[in-house]
């Protein structure tokens, strides 16, 4: 068995076990803290069992992060511009239909989990392991689409925002060959989805 698929199965089992515990046992634990715990455990499993296969290796992490930051800035600008144009013919703009305000009791914890830890664990899993495994067996476009569908499905339902994100992150992984640029864009996107609704006074 390919080592990647073995680690993928282990991570899926760990995820299911944590979800089962959370849904059946009343734990006096902050949901964000619980999510952080799950993602840290999954990250340690992936790095411990498949470090060389996880997409973390690259010649220059700062360079890859800079590339990701550039892509994130360009994509963010395109999203804001697209929303501004859409407001000419769509009441409230397109973004309002796609994302909503998230009420957050602990912004620092939300930022740490949602914009730092969770995107890293997800990039290790969905791009470092799953996408690279698919890519050895399927053409590039099929691998990008299938991995994006898995990524969106993991969020509970297949929504346009997650589909677009999955396509972009997988495309970046294909281009760069490591998780750092997609991770940077993923982290920035999560931050943008959280913060953008609060920047529009009419949201």
From TrEMBL:
Organism of origin is anaerobic digester metagenome
Q: What is this protein called?
A: CAAX amino terminal protease self-immunity (Modular protein)
Q: Which residues form the CAAX prenyl protease 2/Lysostaphin resistance protein A-like domain?
A: 107-191
Any Pfam family? Rce1-like
The regions listed as transmembrane in this protein's record are 7-25, 31-53, 65-89, 109-130, 142-173, 179-200
Keyword annotations for this protein, in alphabetical order, are: Hydrolase, Membrane, Protease, Transmembrane, Transmembrane helix
**PANTHER family from the UniProt entry:** CAAX AMINO TERMINAL PROTEASE FAMILY PROTEIN, SLR1288 PROTEIN
What InterPro entries does this protein's entry cite?
CAAX_protease, Rce1/LyrA-like_dom
Q: Name one GO molecular function term.
A: endopeptidase activity
Q: Which GO terms describe its biological process?
A: CAAX-box protein maturation; proteolysis
